[in-house]
Amino acid sequence: LEISNLGEKDILVLRLDLTDRHSHEAAANSVLKHFGKIDVLINNGGRSQRSLFVDTNLDVFSAIMELNYLGTISLTKYVLNHMIQRKKGKIVTMNSVMGIMGAPLASGYCASKHALQGFFNSLRTELTDYPEISIINICPGPVQSKIIQNVFTEELSKAIENSGDQSHKMPTDRCVRLTLVSTANDLKEAWISDQPYLAVCYLWQYAPTWAWWLMNKMGKRRIQNFKSGVVSLCPSSC
After folding, report:
1. What is the DSSP string of 196-211?
2. Any catalytic annotation for residue 109?
3. Which bin fits 46, alpha (ψ -120 to 50), beta or left (φ > 0)?
4. Cα distance between residue 52 and residue 233, in whole Å
5. 225 within domain boundaries
6. pLDDT tens, residue by residue, 5-50
7. Is 90 part of any domain?
8. Which of 78, 109, 197, 206 is catalytic?
9. Residue 120 is part of a domain; what is its CATH number?
C-alpha cells in the first residue's frame, strides 16, 4: 500500500470541453493560478469511429476533427505559451497506431490521428531553441477502455449497437505504465501494443507493400463481419 503525501492544494479538477475552444485559455490560466506552473500536458481526449465512409454523414468527419485534432492543438497552444516562457515542459499526446497506418471502418478517426502525428512532428521542429520542451507522441494499439462504447457511427446521433469483447486488449494500467516510462525518458514516439498488432506497425513502417496486402485481407473480412453484425478483433478497434 502506497501512502500519498498529496493534499487538497495539490489536486485541481476542472471540467473541460475540447470542442469549446474559447474556454481553453481560461482553463490553462486557472491551472497556472493554482499551481504556478505546468510541467506536463497529457492530451488524452478523443473519440473513435466505426462506420464505412460511403455510409457516413460528413458532419461526423467534421466532429471528429473538431474534437480529436482542433481541440487538442487549441489546448496545446495555451499551455505551450507558458512552457516557452519557462523554457521547459513536456507535451504528451495520446495518438494511436491508427496515426501511422490506415484501417477500414475508421477513416475519420485515422485522419484525425494522422493530423495529430503530422502536427506534433512539425511542432517539434519549431522548438529546436527549447531543448527542454519535449514533444512526445504515444501510439497505443487496442487498449481496454470505453472508447468503443462512445465511438462515432455513420450519424452523429447514432450510438454503436455492439461494442464487443475487450478481453483481448492490453490492460489499461499497463498502457499507462508504459506511457509514463516513455514520458520520463522523453521518447519522441512510442508504439504501445501487444502482438500481433505491434507487428503490423512494423510492417507499415518497413514493409508497406506487405502491410497493404495484409490490411486488404483483414479489412475485407472485417467489413463483412461489420455488415453482418459481428465484432472482429482488428487493430482499428483501438
Report:
1. THHHHHHHHHH-HHHH
2. yes
3. left
4. 17
5. no
6. 888 889 999 999 999 999 999 999 999 999 999 999 999 999 999 9
7. yes
8. 109
9. 3.40.50.720
